Amino acid sequence: MSKPWQKWLAKRFQFEKIKQLSQKDILIFIYQQGYLYVVLILITFIAGINYANNLILGFCFLISAILCISFYVTFKQLHELSVEISVNEIGQVGDNLDLQLHFQQLQTQLRYLWIKTDQHLEKVSIAELKQKITLSFFTDKRGKFHYPTVQIYAVYPFGLVRAWTYFYLTEYSWVAPKAAFYNAENKQHQQSFEPDMDEFRELRNFKLGDSLQAVSWKQAARGQGLYIKVFEQHNDQPSVKIHYANMPSAEHEEKLSLMMGLIEQCEQLQCSYAVVLPQAELAIGVGANQLLQAKKLLAQA
Q1: Domain ranges of the chain
Q2: Number of C-alpha atoms within 13 angstroms, CB side, residue 37?
Q3: What digits encode the pLDDT tens for the residues 103-144?
């Protein structure tokens, strides 16, 4: 398809949120076997004229009327159909993004439609006043995801004529990186991630049954006797700062994936976290909204 033609289609069929299909939104023309049907009409017309046979001419007019009726019935499959589109705001690499088509009609009418994108070709029937169809798109790349052009068409009732329309979508979604995790053997990074839960409070005399791991060996080496270190746990919930510069990788995408892995760990543990990127920062928090904002931040990085 030539670029001028594409630009004209994109301008005429640009779609934002909701649209009710009117006459100017619908294209209609002969479809596939309809061309053979037109040839049949021409043959019967020529034969009827040449042989001056009214029966053949009557048959020609009959099948011509069927073609004309097909134009009207096929057109009505799309006419006055209202379509609203909603999308996921945030997705993640390796998951699907859902494009939801909400169909609504003024009165109950059975419509047989085809929905076509570069990844889908689905036949649907609309029989209710309100009906929802979901299209899923697999994502394998981080960043801004633009939804492809959606074509909706009908060939009912005989497949002789096709009526169709395009939706050039302005909607988009953000795709966050896939989570990656530190190597379990990398103790240095594990220790830097784990918050300090305890702080030293006092020393007390060693008692039978105390763990030797808690003994203050510094005092024992000085000949001051055996003492046990007593620690006091923090009352406040620990928090973690997930900093882009501290990620153990030189690759930008890998850094973001490692940050995504830490974010998911914090959410699982319900541990508050902040996210620091070179050009943006997310304040400390935890929960569904915090996760949504963190994903969006990494998707835009």
Answers
A1: 1-176, 177-197+236-301, 198-233
A2: 18
A3: 999 998 999 999 999 888 999 999 999 999 999 999 999 999
